[in-house]
Amino acid sequence: TGCNGPKDGEHGLFMDKLEGRIRNHDREIEKMCNHHFQGFVDSITELLKVRGEAQKLKVQKEEMRCRLQQRNIATTTDKLTHCLPGTNIILCILIQYYPALRTLEQLEESCLPQAGSYRFCTIMAENIPRLRTHIRDVSMSDLKDFLESIRKHSDKIGETAMKQVCVLVLLLIQVMCLSLTRTVLQIPGAQDLVDFSPVYRCLHIYTVLGARDTFENYYRKQRRKQARLVLQPHSNMVRPLTAFSHAFFFVVEDHILHTTQGLVNRAYVEELWELALSKTIAALRTHSSYCTDPDLILDLKNLIVLFADTLQGYGFPVNQLFDMLLEMRDQYGEILLKKWNQSFRQILDQDNYSPIPVASPEEYQRIACQFPFQDPELDKIPFPKKLPFSEFVPKVYSQLKEFIYACLKYSEDLHLSSTEIDDMIRKSTNLLLTRTLSHCLQYAIKKKNVGLAELVQIIINTTHLEQSCHYLEEFISNITNVPPDTINATKLYGTSTFKDARHAAEEEIYTNLNQKIDQFLQLADYDWTAAQGGAQASDYLSDLIAFLCSTFAVFTHLPGKVAQTACMSACKHLSTSLLQLLLEADVRQVSMGALQQFNVDVKECERFARAGPVPGFQGDTLLLAFIDLRQLLDLFTQWDWSTYLADYGRPTCKYLRVNPHTALALLEKMKDTSRKNNMFAQFRKNERDKQKLIDTVVKQLRNLIATNQA
């Protein structure tokens, strides 16, 4: 009973012995019961207490063991809690690099020192630099993939951005709102076109690692390389992908500028933009100068406009691009002029230069839709009938309208006012009229083997085209919404163009007629020594008069003055040519018989003039073309020298148109011919007197000439 805390292993033995002891004591108690009863009771009480204490010791021992286990678990949990960020670092790297770096920093600076000097903590600490390097390398790899991706797909993404701008512009036009600011247009942001997270991730990682400058320099260097590739001029500048790449490059840089702090700055972006502008404009100037297709120039212009509008929406200045487009407008105009020159030449070459036959009202209406033609008198004539002009009139008029439309297409979307567009179209149209069409008409008029009928038709055609010029004025005003009577509005020079062409055709008619007359005169075969003239006109002259009659019959549709001028010109040329024929140096002798035949021919010419081959001449006006010949022949055939010599120089002289030089030259051909060709054989008795008379007249003419010269 006096033991204090026996060992657990001896507890059983102790209890056995205790039980034996109790039994012994019980016997002793029985013996001593009567004498020691109170002491017996006390012993029993003490034993019960010892038993209770032993039970308490057992429970306390179990509690101590459990508390030790709890303390160990708590310590382990605490240490593991400090090391938990390290166990999660691989997962963080796989998910997000930037949080992984933050976790590594927390692990290195806080968690591992608190965890203690365990072996696994040491291993984690040693691997932290390698993990940082791995995170940096992986993020840089992602950045490189990003840069490569936007390089490969810049065309497609740029196309998407520009198409979205195009759609938005069209919507704004529909509501008459032409502002191109980002706020109004709501231009799609670059984030809508591409995922920029690799750039942001890498930037943050390098910032955390203290290497931001390294990253900025690398990024700018790589983007400059890409810029040089994008801005490198291509052999085909009309390629849409070129504009798309340019647009997307600056869309990306604008987004980076506005979403990062200092990765790129405004000066860097502006430097690249100025480089892009200079290279683009230089390339445009070079390639457009070699381009000969107006459709390609138009496609290029549309791409540049879309490119400029897109980047203007992102805040880039694009005035130089629009200035360049205005320069290209002149090149576009020159290409159009060359193209229309071919069209006009083809129309003029293929025309039959005959009035257009119209068999039905439908045909008439079809032509009226192509060309504004009104003729009340013609409308009264039943079908079938003929229009006065040939096919080239409606075709040329249609081509003029097509040219105006082509000019309008280029001026669209250049942010020009209606007045500027109207002025541009009118100036270009004037160049078409005064240069291209005028030259083509001159070519058609002066080309080889052009006939009189064709020239007459050209005059008729140009007359109708001239009358249609005010319709062209109205057409331009309708498509530009600028009234034709606007102050300082450019006027079309169509009237003068067609007048000049008509005058050239008229002159060509006169020249052509004269050439035809010369061809007939080459067939003249006079017997200059004939003793007597014939009773009828020479064959060549009869054919010539017949030709002139048929020719002037075609002139019925010509303006009156043109026909009259042509007829007068032909008669004057015929008269002059006949006189030259008579006075040719090769004609050394002229007999009176030859003069009589020549006189018969001139009378035939006078009958033609008197018959009025074209209407409009008053009296015998056309006869005046032959007055010089008539007076000269009358003087010789009537041998009226006394009158000529007596009245010479007076206004009322009968032979006022006879020049003494001309009379002397012809008289010299008749002098002293009697011995050679028996010229005055019919006057044998008076032969000598006649020869003397000729000598006398020659002498008097020479004196008259000498007196006038003095």
How would you summarize the topology of this molecule?
Layout: H1 11-32, H2 37-95, H3 97-115, H4 119-152, H5 154-174, H6 182-185, H7 197-208, H8 212-231, H9 240-259, H10 266-290, H11 294-313, H12 319-350, E1 357-358, H13 361-370, H14 376-380, E2 385-386, H15 392-411, H16 418-446, H17 452-467, H18 469-480, H19 494-521, H20 539-553, H21 560-583, H22 592-610, H23 627-637, H24 641-647, H25 660-670, H26 674-677, H27 687-709
Antiparallel strand pairs: 1-2
Helix pairs in contact: 2-3, 3-4, 3-7, 4-7, 5-9, 5-11, 7-8, 9-10, 9-11, 10-12, 11-12, 12-15, 12-16, 15-16, 15-18, 16-19, 17-19, 19-21, 20-22, 22-23, 25-27
Overview of the molecule:
The chain is mostly helical and 710 residues long. Helix content is 74%, strand content 1%. The chain is built from 27 helices and two strands. It has helices at residues 11-32, 37-95, 97-115, 119-152, 154-174, 182-185, 197-208, 212-231, 240-259, 266-290, 294-313, 319-350, 361-370, 376-380, 392-411, 418-446, 452-467, 469-480, 494-521, 539-553, 560-583, 592-610, 627-637, 641-647, 660-670, 674-677, 687-709, and strands at residues 357-358, 385-386. Strands 1-2 form a two-stranded antiparallel sheet. Helix 2 runs antiparallel to helix 3, helix 19 runs parallel beside helix 21 and helix 25 packs antiparallel against helix 27. The protein is rod-shaped. Mean pLDDT is 79; it is low at 89-95, 168-185, 237-241 and 679-683.
